[in-house]
Structures are given as C-alpha cells and as structure tokens.
Amino acid sequence: MSACGVQSGLHIEDQWPSPPSRKAPIAPTEDQLKQELWYHGKMSRRDAEKLLHTDGDFLVRDSITNPGQYVLTGMHNGQPKHLLLVDPEGV
C-alpha cells in the first residue's frame, strides 16, 4: 500500500503515524492533517483519481459534496474507490 504524496507514492509503513498520546485530541486539527503526505485537502473525485496509479495507493481529502467530512480515496483492483469517513459518534 502507498499513500499518494504530492511527488510520489510512499509505503504506508513509512508514513504510519505514532499512536496519539492520551492528551491528544481524537480528531486531528487541519494543521496536523496538512503535515501528512496522504492528506490533500479539498479535492474533487476526478482530481483524486488522477493521483492514484497502483493498487494500494490512497489519499484522504475533504468532501466537496459533504462539507466537514473526509473521503478516503484508494485504488483497488485497478479501480478507484471513494469511502466517506463517518464518525460513529457524529462528532
């Protein structure tokens, strides 16, 4: 698996974040997300798909149709998949 960085795909093992400390907020701040190579901010489905080339490539983006929500976009079996990330507690 690889996260789509701006310049190239990376192995997820290289980008896996450390577990949060007990004092860390559950939801990351926008500044924290911007530091991650897999986060691409506001982006359309079509633009996200253009960045994915290999099975396992993925990125997280802001949803355009559901403001305030995030979408996990990944390549699986040669096809792009878009998964709306939903907080079960509605936060």
Automatic annotation (TrEMBL):
Q: Which residues form the SH2 domain?
A: 38-91
Q: Which GO terms describe its molecular function?
A: receptor tyrosine kinase binding
Q: Does the keyword Lyase apply?
A: no
Q: Which GO terms describe its biological process?
A: cell surface receptor protein tyrosine kinase signaling pathway
Its Gene Ontology cellular component terms are:
plasma membrane
Decide whether keyword Ion transport is in the record.
Answer: no
Domain of life (superkingdom): Eukaryota
Which portions of the sequence form the region Disordered? 1-29
Kindly state which keywords UniProt assigns to this record, in alphabetical order: SH2 domain
Q: Which Gene3D superfamilies did the record assign? A: SH2 domain
Protein name as annotated = SH2 domain-containing protein
